[in-house]
Fold this sequence. Notes:
Radius of gyration of chain B: 24 Å
Distance between the termini of chain A: 50 Å
Number of helices of chain B: 7
Number of strands of chain B: 0
Shape of chain A: globular
Strand content of chain A: under 5%
Largest interface: A-B, 78 and 51 residues
Strand content of chain B: under 5%
Largest sheet of chain B: none
Order of helices and strands of chain A: HHHHHHHHHH
Structural class of chain A: mainly alpha
Structural class of chain B: mainly alpha
Helix content of chain B: 55-70%
Number of helices of chain A: 10
Distance between the termini of chain B: 40 Å
Largest sheet of chain A: none
Order of helices and strands of chain B: HHHHHHH
Radius of gyration of chain A: 18 Å
Oligomer: heterodimer
Helix content of chain A: 55-70%
Amino acid sequence: MDTTLATPAPPxxxxxxxxxxxxxxxxxPPMTTDRADSKAEPEARTATSAxxxxxxxxxxxxxxxxxxxxxxxxxxxxxxRIRMFLMRLCGKPRLADDLLQETFLRVHRARGSxxxxxxxxxWSYAIARNAFVDHGRRGRNERTESLDEAAPGAEPExxxxxxxxxxxxxxxxxxxxxxxxxxxxxxxxxxxVLTRFEGLSNAEAAQIxxxxxxxxxxxxxxxxxxxxxxxRGGTEES
Amino acid sequence: MSADRHDPWGRFDPxxxxxxxxxxxxxxxxxxxxxxxxxxxxxxxVRLRRGLxxxxxxxxxxxxxxxxxxxxxxxxxxxxxxxxxxxxxxxALTLLLRATTTTARLGLVASAxxxxxxxxxxxxxxxxxxxxxxxLKCMVVTMVLLAAPLVLGxxxxxNAFPSGxxxxxxxxxxxxxxxxxxxxxxxxPHDDSLHVMLGHGLPILAAGVLxxxxxxxxxx
Lengths: 238, 220
């Protein structure tokens, strides 16, 4: 069964100056470093209510009906994406792994409540977010100071064959992005990560964050504004 | 971010913000072994649990009101005092079970349901007015009546909602309160608005607060 979680092709975004309009559309594109990707396959935009992972939903449905054999496949398919989401929220690979285990324990516990015909992606993301929030409440969240040391082996990658100057620029940019991401208010960070990096629609993000689509748009826009200020500042200084 | 990725007018595109964790795909932690996981009910068992909880709650209401005794009722009392709160409670329960319902919407529904109850109670005003002691007694009995649906509902909806648990729990409390308030009207002989608001209405609000306090039970 093909249950790949590759996000749909990125939506249109042809107007660099049209800030809010981007957040007013459906799911943000998954992060790409190639700007040309963002203009590809505009017809692949989906409606906010469209179910985008029917195979995965069917898998979760089987598990909710009591088929334990669906669990390994569900874990193998869903876990990498949930793990990345948790990484983006907490910034620590080890903590993300712990929270991933906690998330799937909760998924297991709540499987009977997964409604037939529901979408598993926002459902499981919301559970992962709860695990993260609960961890923070327990006072063990040290995200802010951890971001620079997060993913120690993961130095920013510059495009292959790029000039040293361009590589350095890319590394500096990623440092700024990590710092800004760490400093963002929790609500803004969540909205931005979900819509920008996770490629979810505003409707899906609203469902996860228990708020309105308009609120998601505003939060993500404010986060983007913070990035804009930081990156512009960095660019202008350099 | 290279200069050629900016437009010449210096505007900013959120697509230019790179993912700081892209490429950090490490091997997944080992799959939790199913036998080591606590048992969890499948969907059919959860549905059965919910159905049973509803049936037991209604049964308990009937048993308590049967023990207290039924009053003589006009059609107006039946429609305004009994049927309308039960219908509102049913709508609230239906809404809280929907995955896409947000806390804000549920809060609106819960507030509207409570307000409706008080407006209807106010419209019912007709003397003679009952003594305050009667209102206190009704308050206690209504709290007892709403306790069963609230507790059973919370247990039946345990771990059911990944998001919006606070709103859903409050709405569950309000719905249980409305059910209790409807049931007490089958027994309570006092129809004046002050009595209904105090003795039957305040417990609805108290149930909402109790529901909110139990939100962790509902959260996945």
